[in-house]
Amino acid sequence: MDRRAWRLAPAGVLSWMVAAVAITHSAAAPWLALLCGGGAVATALTAVLIGRSGRARMWALVTLALLMGAMPAMSVAVQDPPRAAAIEVGDGHQVGGEFSIVGKIETTSLGYRTDALTVSASAGREPVAAGVPVTVLMSERPDGAEIGAVVRIDGGAFAAEPGDRAALVVRAERVELVRAPEGVAAASAWLRARLAASTEGLPAPGAGLIPGLAVGDTGGVDAELEQQMRAASLTHLTAVSGANCAIVVGLAFLLAARCGIGRTGRVIAGLSALAGFVVLVTPEPSVVRAATMSAIAMLALLLGRRGSGLALLALAVCVLLAADPWLALSLGFALSAAATGALLVLAPPLARGLCRFLPASLALALAVPLSAQLVCGPLIVLVSPGVAVYGVPANLLAAPAAPAATVLGLAACLAGPVPVLQAGLSALTWVPAAWIAGIAGAVDALPARTLPWAEGLPGLVGLVVVTAAGTVLLLPPGRTRVARLGRALSAVMTASTAAAMVGILVVDSVVVPLTTPQGWSVAMCDVGQGDAVVVRSAGAVMLVDTGPEPEALASCLARLGITRIDLLVLTHFDIDHVGGLDGVPAPVGLLMHGPADERDTARVLAVGARDVVAAAAEMGGVLGAARWRILWPSADAVVPGNDASIVVEVGGGGVPRTLMLGDLGADAQRALRASGELRGPYDVLKVAHHGSADQDAGLQRQAAPALALIGVGAGNDYGHPRAEILDILSAQGTTVARTDLDGLILVGTSEGRTTLWRERADAASAALGRLGGWRSESPPRRAVRSRSSRGGPRSRRRSC
Fold first, then answer.
1. What is the DSSP secondary structure assignment for residue 4, as one 8-state letter?
2. Do 207 and 437 touch, CB atoms closer than 8 A?
3. What are the angstrom distances between the C-alpha of 440 and each of 208, 433, 627?
4. pLDDT at 794 exceeding the cut of 60
5. Closest C-alpha among 706, 702, 569 to residue 632
6. What residues have CB less than 8 Å from 264, skipping those under 6 apart?
7. Would you state the pLDDT for residue 2?
8. Is the CB of residue 668 less than 8 Å from the CB of residue 643?
9. Residue-wise DSSP of 707-727
10. Going by DSSP bridges, is the β-strand pair 111-123/94-101 parallel, antiparallel, or unpaired?
């Protein structure tokens, strides 16, 4: 590639860096703008003084880079005052007024979510400036609420996270439609609705993909299909991406060329088609970003100007960041830019390298998804620490179907005024959509779908190094001594990494299952200073709390072979109980939570459960062949915290009678005991608050557990578990198992007795574990009661 194509790259990088700093430290934005602007003036004067020379051109490029860096800083400096004022008056207060919907309305576990701009709003008596971006959470969606609509909203507000595009998050308590979308916005909404309706009679899961593949409407993609698409690295197909926009531009170019229109006319036709497509699929920020990136890439490739394409990509990054600096921290924007850059820079030489082993057509087809995977993989590690194993072959298999689904789906959408034609086109679209869904399902069923990888910045840097080494091996070999040395080092690094990954796979897929007993019904995960308890009966799974870190929870669930959660109980919202939410596998059936504030509600929204319920005493239901019931808190509890923790009892169906106390303190424990809900003795007790000293001895005596489980981190700063609770349990003959000493703890039943397995037990027990056996450590004083003993829930039953 011509080195001149890289001249604008520094401008794009500087613009990105300045934008990221400006949106996270808005007070510094004016100074950044002044610094970059002043530097641009100085370098421009230098270029003028030098005159016509190579150095003058270099100073001119530096001037351009500084100007591009100043633009996002200036944009933040201009937009920040009304945002800051809105946060000052709105954070923690009731906000009401009229809002214009500017983003797609997404379905969540608790209702709906969308982006909006204030039109005329206030927090109490304090007005909120017009045009302030907010995120709106709604439990109900009024008819006609689409992009372009104006709604009246009243609800509680809290400040969004630093770096978010929205200044406030508003939890709407009341939503009323003021004005429905008009003109083009109304027409596009009608066409999208007609397309979704035309797929309702088609078989799942392919039918759910059709609106997403065609116009980015993911409302028909359920949690299970979304998880499968994620496992196969096909999520970019479930919504509007650069590929969709590229197909639209390509079709417009082709039709214009067939009509004998010249190059200028073809460009105009392509851009016009792209503009119409953006309006049809809703001009939200992600769509505009994808359209801009894909238009640049396609125009550059179709015109045979890859060098110019890279320069245009850098220029587009600068322009987009100047218009919307908050894109700087958007993973989607980073992935779009990276994938487009990979298509322009890496795919051609990668195809030449692959031609050494493959036919030219197959090499080119493989180079496109492979280049995108190589470049985007390190970015994805930042939010999902793992490397997709089957992403490239899955994308290669889906590649022929995706354009067909997009073209046919778009045709079906535009055929909305003719229902018969639309039904036929939707049925045709189902064929490639079902193929893509089938690929996702097949990949999701394969073992070792994802290789574990380090999280955060170390993971990103490590994967960049390994990816670079692998890329060197795939590219055409150089003939210099340095090139040969580089290939040798790359081969060693790639082979070492591959060997390590194979070792990890063998341990995770073979060794760990063989050394972990399979007949357990209650498992306490070793997640450090926190709680995560899994209960299993007849194939149904309950998870009580998630621990503090997603990685620890995900590792434990993978070891236990848990791939779905039927019932998720969040006892309360302390970080050591909900910090691992991102490690919960989708889909979640029923989520039950304790009293929550607005910020806690936002966490619940991210889970994506099919049903969400605020738990209260006397609720109950079934888990496989077991029964569970909620003992605490009372229905009128509204204040979040330890003493409002959910207390759950579960037993029967192979599950020993188990009582889990959350982080309940002594006063709340006494109130629970006085309520008459306890039905001891229990076989297993999950000790409250990691074994703190704030315990009620009377409750421990009434529960009279044979086995007590304590989730606690080694060397924690709290002194947990405290001697007071250990003495109480010891005095009544209770066996204690704790994660800081024992690691993973598994509890089961055998011949009517409670059995216990500890990961870090003595040599004899460990030997039993390696054979998949058990060591019974519970006192033989009591048999586990049958599933029918003690009765079931008294009211409000739920099944999962």
1. G
2. no
3. 13, 11, 34
4. no
5. 569
6. none
7. 60
8. yes
9. EEEE---TT-TT-PSPHHHHH
10. antiparallel
Is residue 115 located within the same domain as residue 41? no
Average pLDDT, integer, range 3-29: 87
Q: Same structural domain for residues 285 and 178?
A: no
Task: Look at residue 479 and tell me whether its pLDDT is greater than 60.
Answer: yes
Residues forming beta bridges with residue 621, ordered by sequence position: 628, 798
Residue 684 lies in a domain: yes
pLDDT score at 98: 93
- What CATH number has the domain bearing residue 97? 2.40.50.140
Is the distance from CB of 531 to CB of 552 less than 8 angstroms? no
The torsion angles phi and psi of 392, rounded to 5 degrees, stand at: -65, -50
**Helical axes 419-445 vs 223-231, angle rounded to 10°:** 60
Q: Contact 787/627 with Cβ under 8 angstroms?
A: yes
pTM over 0.70: no
Q: Looking at residue 360, what is its pLDDT? A: 81
Domain identity same for 466 and 581:
no
Neighbour-count burial of 316, counting CB atoms closer than 10 A to its CB (0-12 exposed, 13-18 middle, 19+ buried): buried
The secondary structure of 548-595 as a DSSP string is: S-HHHHHHHHHHHT---EEEEEE----HHHHTTGGGSPSPEEEEEE-S
Query: The domain containing residue 707 runs over which residues?
Result: 516-781
Q: Is 592 in the same domain as 724?
A: yes
User: Does the pLDDT of residue 302 top 60, yes or no?
Assistant: no
The separation between CA 763 and the C-alpha centre of its own chain, rounded to angstroms, equals 41
Q: What is the spatial distance between Cα 153 and Cα 175, in angstroms, rounded to a whole number?
A: 5
* DSSP string for 353-373: HHTTTS-HHHHHHHHHHHHHH
Which DSSP symbol is given to 50?
H
Average pLDDT, the chain: 81
User: What are the pLDDT digits (tens) for 329-363?
Assistant: 888 788 888 888 888 888 888 888 888 888 887 88
**φ/ψ bin of 109: left (φ > 0), alpha (ψ from -120 to 50), beta (otherwise):** alpha
Q: Which two tokens stand for residue 477?
A: 């070999």
For residue 673, give the CATH number of its domain.
3.60.15.10
pLDDT one-digit tens code per residue, 207-225? 888 888 888 777 777 767 8
Give the residue, 506 or 560, on which the prediction is more confident.
Answer: 560
Same domain, yes or no: 150 and 198 = no
Among 111-125, 262-276, 487-501, 652-666, top mean pLDDT goes to: 652-666
- Alpha-carbon distance of 243 to 172, in angstroms, equals 35
What is the distance between the alpha carbons of residues 346 and 344, in angstroms, rounded to a whole number?
6
- Mark whether 645 and 770 lie in a shared domain: yes
Mean of the pLDDT values across residues 228-240? Answer: 79
Beta pairing, strands 588-593 & 611-614: parallel
Dist. CA 244–CA 276, nearest whole Å: 13
d(CA 4, CA 282): 36
Residue position matching structure tokens 């958007």: 330
